[in-house]
Design brief:
The chain is α/β, with parallel strands linked by helices. It contains 13 helices and 12 strands. Helix 2 (21-33) packs antiparallel against helix 9, helix 4 (64-74) runs parallel beside helix 5 (92-99) and helix 4 (64-74) packs across helix 8.
Length: 378
Amino acid sequence: MTEPAPIPFIDVGAQRRRLGSKIDEAVGRVLAHTQFVSGPEVTAFEADLAAFTGARHVIGCASGTDALLMVLMARGVGPGDAVLCPTFTFCATGEVVALVGATPVFVDVDAATFNIDVASLKRGIATARKAGLKPVAVISVDLFGQSADHDAVRALAREEALFVLDDAAQGFGASYKGRRLGTLADATATSFFPAKPLGCFGDGGAILTDDDELAQILRSIRVHGQGSDKYDNVRIGLTGRLDTIQAAILIEKLKIFEDEIAARNQAAERYSQGLRDVVTVPVVAADCVSVWAQYTIRLPGGTNRDAFAASLKAQGVPSAVYYGKSLHQQTAYRHYPVAAGGLAVAESLSQDVISLPMHAYLDAGTQERIIVAVRAAL
């Protein structure tokens, strides 16, 4: 019996074929001028990204993790400070808080959108203060491609005098009430890891902000804390630059990003139509547009997730679990505080979520095959 042809989870190759020689030519220009560090493509890409989002400043950097870390460094966050963040997210969100010596305080998420629960956030702030910590910031996360409830987060942050850092690593390109991510928080960090909706061919990231002073500090931090004199470093920094070759690639990818966002939404709708009667399909909040970094379903109660995934794999359909353990359940983060009332929603999600193949080049025929496999596996 012939094995079913495997389906790619994220088809980077299809996008590569669409762009064709444009990527080769873009990289070729960098190879010709040899300005591999801080070359003209970096400045050009930052300008393109600013135009795309409406942000006043874009600071390209080496990764999404560096983007988050640099903002906390620029704000002087450190020991004795508490930074509130959702527990149901990739580890980098909490990791950067610990790296600057501050304390991550984990809060729960909304069962429908998987994004930060503002009621739990409020409890988390109280928990931090009770522990003798000073709450200074909240890191909202735009998980799986959908924006957080930025109006609600900002309202509470203003009430509590907290800086808002948006982790848009999975959500860049999404819209919230008619506005693109990038201007909805005091600073927005994103990633261009190859699997992201807007990804390069290696590591890369960016910070977006309308704050002139913050932008100036961030540009210093990304080059070892450099001042006006190359050998007078005026603050502690790091090597956080975006490579010129990656910027050149991203310039070309940004040109087709709008088309890809539309295609991802068409694919998401096909999934929802084909699966909503057998699993819990993701919900996009009113007046929002997701970029569908992942299409994540919740399995019915009592389903053996490992057996379900194995059944899909036998049909050539890959899957992935984001996240089998929430941050507060992971070894490195178990000792950090959690919001009063617990994190029951995140713990439940970690038990029953699973993600299906999702990218802009997922055709209807391939999706039908995936939908049939999912239904059969249940």
